Amino acid sequence: MSPDSPPRSHNVLADPSWRPSPRAKTLWTVQIALSWLGVFAALLGWVVVDPDRRIWQVAVAVVAVPMATLTAIAVPRWRYRVHRWEVTDDAVYSRSGWLTQESRVAPISRVQTVDTERGPLERILDLSTVTVTTASSAGAVHISLLDRAVAEQTVTRLTETAARHRGDAT
């Protein structure tokens, strides 16, 4: 199946079918590694400033290094297994998260705007996030970390589908 496949039946509310780009795992790994840099910079500063506490510094390093490695390996893979999305003629579906998971369904008739977003790391990895703004107090639906070409196709499809559902989007 592909994002251009025929829509699912109106009566079936199943999990979304599509995953983000496999490069999403690389992005999440880089983000985790960057977040651990602060911990290791603080540890290095402590080592330089306080040479009398080497046993504690080694203990912190012995805990931090495996934790950083485990999170950089496990979390991106888990997130990749959880994250899903799908666009049908009737709705936009998304599921995201890893510790706390969120599922969203937005009827096409409620779509107000469709935007793409690409941060610096996303541009390097040729990824895009599609944001579907609806008339909902829950906020926009985000379809994260798609290949740029898939994101562009998705935006085109959503725009065309929403135009056919000329509701008031409220």
Automatic annotation (TrEMBL):
Residues annotated as transmembrane: 27-49, 55-75
Entry protein name: PH domain-containing protein
Domain of life according to the entry: Bacteria
InterPro entries for the chain: YdbS-like_PH
Keywords for this protein: Membrane, Transmembrane, Transmembrane helix
Residue segments, region Disordered: 1-21
Domain YdbS-like PH: start-end pairs: 80-154
Native organism: Nocardia fusca
